[in-house]
Amino acid sequence: MRGLSAGLHEPPPLASLTRLPSYSWLIVGTVCVGAFLGQLDASIAGLVLPTLEETFAASVASVEWVAIAYLVTLAALVVPFGRLADLAGRKLLYVSGFLVFITGSALCGFAPSLAWLIAFRVVQAIGAAMLQANSVAIITAAVARRRLGRAIGIQGAAQAVGLSVGPSVGGFLIDALGWRWVFFIAVPFGLMGTVLGWLVLPATARAEGQETEERFDWPGALLLGPSVALFMLALTFANDWGWTSPAFLGVTLLAAVCLGLFVATEVRATSPLVDLALFASRLFTIGIVAGLLSYSVLFGSLFLIPFYLERILDRTPAEAGLLLSPVPLALGIVAPLAGTLTDRFGSRLPTVTGMLLSAVALLALALLPDSGLSLMLVLLGVLGVGLGLFTPPNNSAIMGSAPQHRLGVAGGILNMTRGIGTSLGVALTGAILALLLSVYTGAHVESTVDADPAALELAFHQTLFCLGVLAAAAGVLSAVRGAPTLEAAPAQPATMAESIGL
Q1: Dist CA 484 CA 464 (whole Å)
Q2: Among 38, 31, 133, 140, which residue's Cα sits nearest to residue 80?
Q3: CB 33: neighbour CB atoms within 10 A?
Q4: DSSP secondary structure string, 438-494?
Q5: Residues 6 or more apart in contact with residue 443 via CB below 8 angstroms
Q6: Quick one: pLDDT band at residue 191, thresholds 50, 70, 90?
Q7: For 121-145, what is the HEC assignment?
Q8: What rounded mean pLDDT belongs to the chain?
């Protein structure tokens, strides 16, 4: 794939738009359409699984593949698509991602069977990977570095809005129009994103430092994809298989072998899929690790707290979903503010403050078992505030440390981290909860349905304590990762926005 970028043409944006003083923010708004759509689809798709179980008369294990196939495909492909975008053009891949995503969504809506639905979810995930691998890279390339934090914060707010409204929109669609509209709803948003992307987004400029004839690293892609997919599968089924079972150990070992071969391949590659020099930056590496912990904390909490609300407080699933809303709502409100703070003070202050706030909220929930529902809602809001303070600045630090011609790969790694963090958080939280329940009941516990309420409540609070420790660890990492010199004075070529004074 020599000279890939030279063989593909990206149309320029409308000239009338580029002359607007707010052009860079139009780019951010266009990217926010994809950010909103991705989280809307993710939150709705989880809600529809019980309905699919009844519709197709299928087992829970079978229906779960509607979600698993999507998540595994997405995590496996975001890095290769990020690299492909660096070579072929981010605008081209982003707009194409919308078309693939809405095609997959429409096919999901027309799926005649569960097997076909799972297959079409893979198509949908391919489109989502093309979008997610490029979204933050497009923002980073188009927005002046002094405003990057605010721009990424706005994108985070769009994701939080999609995550917040998804359950209510999904519930309405399922009740009023049927489960197929859960997938059809993505089509109009995707069409809007396609048109906006074509008209608004700038063509990808070749940055200094990029080789004139880089190749796409097919051996690297063929090794990284399976290693990520196998690792995701191991995490997803760890609690079902058992953490010491032959199945879990075998899949994990195979993932490790693929990853080792991938690293060995990248070291020798002239145009590697992942430039391992990215990890020489403390900002990048520690930011990725801290981000992994933060996503584990967020999705571990969202997985764990409904068990308490439904099993201990006897709330319905709908009520539990509503009571969890302070987390994404607070995250969405605070994210743009956190980005603005990053632009003024750097990423260290908001990331450390955010994760320590999250740790305080989780530890308070763990150590105040009789605090009541009102205080619990307040602490969930604090958790959302903490995560909102952390995520945009951390993402800004990660992307700000990457060279211009590696933004797609950096964005792909960032989004792959979110997928792995999601699975890791759910798997570890479930494992800790099950282990503690077994200890306190003196028997192996596979379900919380018939668990002793006193034992379940004790196990719940101690599992929350473990999540609080993870949040504190992410805060400590954010404090020691070094001064954000690249954010204050970027050592890379001026972006398009900076060159025209935006």
Answers
A1: 32
A2: 133
A3: 21
A4: HHHHTS----STTS-HHHHHHHHHHHHHHHHHHHHHHHHHHHHS---HHHHS--SPP
A5: none
A6: very high
A7: HHHHHHHHHHHHHHHHHHHHHHCCH
A8: 82
Tokens 């975008």 -> residue: 85
Q: At what angle do helices 90-109 and 23-47 cross, to 10 degrees?
A: 30
Residue with tokens 């880089």: 214
Tokens of 58: 């299928």
Terminal Cα distance for the chain, rounded: 35
Sign, CA torsion 147/153/159/165: negative
* Distance between CA atoms of residues 109 and 123, nearest Å: 13
Q: What is the helix (H) or strand (E) element at residue 381, kind and residue range?
A: helix 373-400
Please give the distance of CA 398 from its chain centroid, rounded to a whole number: 14
**Rounded CA separation 192/175 (Å):** 26
Residue 367 to residue 462: CA distance in whole angstroms = 8
SS3 per-residue string spanning 398-441: HHHCCCHHHHHHHHHHHHHHHHHHHHHHHHHHHHHHHHHHHHHH
For position 86, what pLDDT does the model report? 80
Closest CA to 324 of 274, 373, 259, 265: 373
CATH class in words for 276-489: mainly alpha
Lowest mean pLDDT among 43-57, 78-92, 405-419, 450-464: 43-57
DSSP string, 161-172: HHHHHHHHHHHH
Q: What is the predicted pLDDT for the residue at 493?
A: 34
CA nearest to 51, candidates 176, 161, 237, 190: 176
- DSSP summary character for residue 57: T
Could you say which DSSP state residue 271 is in?
S
pLDDT at 379: 93
SS3 (DSSP) at 9: coil
Which amino acid, one-letter code, is at 55?
T
Residue 187 and residue 102 in contact, taking contact as beta carbons nearer than 8 Å: yes
Q: Looking at domain 4-8+19-204, does it have CATH number 1.20.1250.20? A: yes
- pLDDT-above-70 percentage for the chain: 89
Average pLDDT rounded to a whole number, residues 207-230: 76
CA–CA dist 394, 401 (Å, integer): 11
Neighbour tally for 212: CB within 10 Å: 8
User: Contact, 456 vs 312, CB < 8 A?
Assistant: yes
C-alpha to C-alpha distance for 242 and 434, rounded to whole angstroms: 11
Region of 57 (left: φ > 0; alpha: ψ -120 to 50; beta: rest) is left
Residues 6+ apart with CB under 8 A from 172: none
40-71 burial code (b ≥16 CB/10 A, e <16): bbbbbbebbeebbbeebebeeeebbbbbbbbb
Backbone torsion region of residue 242, taken as left when φ is above 0, otherwise alpha when ψ lies between -120 and 50, otherwise beta: left
